[in-house]
Predict the structure of FAD-binding protein.
Amino acid sequence: MGQPLATRVWRNWARTATATPQRVCHPRDLHELSADVRRAVADGLRVRAVGSGHSFTPVATTDGVHIRVDALDVLERVVSQADGSTHVTVGAGIRLGALNALLAERGLAMRNLGDIDKQTLAGAISTGTHGTGARLGGLATQVVGAELVTATGDVVQTSATQEPELFELARLGLGTVGVLGTVTLEVVPAYRLEAREEPWLLGDVLEQLDGPDGLVEANDHFEFYWFPHTDRTLTKRNNRVADDVELPLPRVRGWLEDEVIANGAFALANSIATLAPSLTRSVNDIATRTISRRRYTAPSASVFVSSRRVRFREMEYALPRDQVAPVLREIVSWIESSGELLPFPLEVRFAAADDLWLSTAHGRDTAYIAVHQYVRLPYARYFDAVERIVAQVDGRPHWGKMHWLEAERLAELYPRFADAQRVRAQADPDGVFSNPYLDRLLGSPRDAG
Ligand SMILES: Cc1cc2nc3c(=O)[nH]c(=O)nc-3n(C[C@H](O)[C@H](O)[C@H](O)COP(=O)(O)OP(=O)(O)OC[C@H]3O[C@@H](n4cnc5c(N)ncnc54)[C@H](O)[C@@H]3O)c2cc1C
């Protein structure tokens, strides 16, 4: 008998994608994962792996077999390397929060993280998830090995020296060359960060961004949020400090700002803006006036990660770093002249150039501009306008977030795009791991073969 409909229906966090696969699998190890893929292929069904559904697009959807990887979440091994670094191998379905806890217990940590920890490791690396830091890359740059089940059901080990081309798409390839079973990360000794959060005027931030002593270079992790219809931002400077530097955040104040202001009052502000759009400017004005200064130290993961309970839609573009100020000024001016009323802030982050084929920071020091819209408000006109502005500086869209680019344009933006298409076509000539969204994004593997 087939699985009941209720257990098969799936939708993503942002409520922008749904799927009703014919079958759902929950493999607990590589052996079961391989059997699930083989059976799908024998039944003529397509396969998509799905993590925690935190991508904003239909990238993980399928009408064939959904492989939900949550049960692949064990710590397999921790190996000290001759060069002093440490490699940790974990099940690819582990949530980042659980991974951070496992690492902390062993005196270890990820080199950098994004804003939340609900994603699976596989999902996060597959879409190029990143945090901020001028000298640091996204999560996939921390991957040194990956074990995946390919379209033939075989288990293949990949790394910079084993199947290096396949490794490129295993560590950042939207699940197009197989289903990840385990991932090996290079991790670092646990560290503490001093967090410094301050309200700044947007003009001051843009003026002080660049140069060797600028905000981006002079901080390990710098980011800021700009609130539309105001000239105010929230800046975040997180820097490594020695383990004995203790600057605790008073418990009540931390809770008040994180839970009541960042989530509770923010939810209220968005509801007001939805019911009475004309109040959006006043709401943003009041919201930005409540931002206060905070300074505290804590283990890295708890500084990076916050909770996001207000649901939204998001588009994020990677730009050459030196373009961020002019692009942001153009977006600000479009918002003011367009009449769009936007209760959600824009987020600006930074990353070092890397050489991963499909990394949004491939070959260039990068700034990210993320635009958000509350889940109950229209987003298309705003996102479309921002997409047209960033196109002028060859912006590259985040692989897990909303955008309207297709293969032809993406090929112009990524120097190794044709190589990625070739490797995908070799690994999966029949498009077992494809869906219509991916075919639009990357072309059909049958055409590239
Ligand atoms: C509230 C929120 C905050 C976010 N914050 C950030 C942020 O700070 N920085 C940032 O860069 N992004 C951020 N994102 C985006 C998010 O990190 C990515 O979309 C990420 O892919 C989500 O991981 P997931 O586990 O939900 O994967 P899913 O969305 O479920 O899947 C993503 C992709 O991974 C593939 N996949 C999943 N598991 C496997 C597997 N085992 N093998 C092969 N492929 C697999 C899927 O097929 C799909 O292509 C955020 C998203 C939300 C909703």
About this structure: The chain has two domains: 75-190, 192-397. The two ends are 37 Å apart (CA to CA). The pocket of flavin-adenine dinucleotide is lined by residues 13-14, 48-55, 59-60, 69, 92-93, 114-116, 119-120, 122-124, 126-127, 129-130, 174-175, 179-180, 308, 398, 400 (CB under 6 Å).
